[in-house]
């Protein structure tokens, strides 16, 4: 299989969430693992937020944040790296959509890249519906623009999943 060539260095935004086994600790551990990767540098972390589960309601609240990194890796290589971190942290893929999880790492944005493959869509296909992603993006960059969607500050006003609460450190 031929490996894609690297693209130019861009700002990469990754959404992080957990609702199992001390979610705040899991999110912190994921951030640390991201920092250990040679493919990433220049980390900035949003505030942390608590959100109600979007799926089955018999699970705990989520802790969410977004990190901004810089990378020149291909989108598919980044996806493989994130799936590797999830696996290393104990995530097991569930057949139930939006079920509880020890860690969830999603590529939200990668510069102004619009990308679609069988396994990955950038910008994340549900970004405009989720305050637990939009607000952390705004924390990092109040003027952030999501290609083909609009400014996060405008999208958050009418997003579908609005129920979030800032977590004090």
How would you summarize what this structure contains?
With about 170 residues, this protein is α+β, with helices and mostly antiparallel strands. The protein is built from four helices and ten strands; from the N terminus they run βαβββαβββαββαβ.
Model description:
A hairpin with a 3-residue loop joins strand 8 and strand 9. The chain starts with 9 loop residues before the first strand and ends with a strand. The chain is built from 4 helices and 10 strands; from the N terminus they run E-H-E-E-E-H-E-E-E-H-E-E-H-E. The radius of gyration is 15 Å and the shape is globular. Helices cover 24% and strands 28% of the residues. It is of the alpha+beta class. It has helices spanning 23-35, 75-88, 131-140, 152-155; strands spanning 10-18, 41-45, 48-51, 62-71, 104-110, 115-116, 121-122, 145-146, 150-151, 164-167.
Write the H/E string, N to C.
Answer: EHEEEHEEEHEEHE
Please tally the helical runs, counting DSSP H or I stretches of 4 or more residues.
4
Structural class: alpha+beta
How much of the residues is beta strand, in percent? 25-35%
Which of globular, elongated, flat, extended, rod-shaped describes the shape?
globular
Low-confidence sequence ranges? none
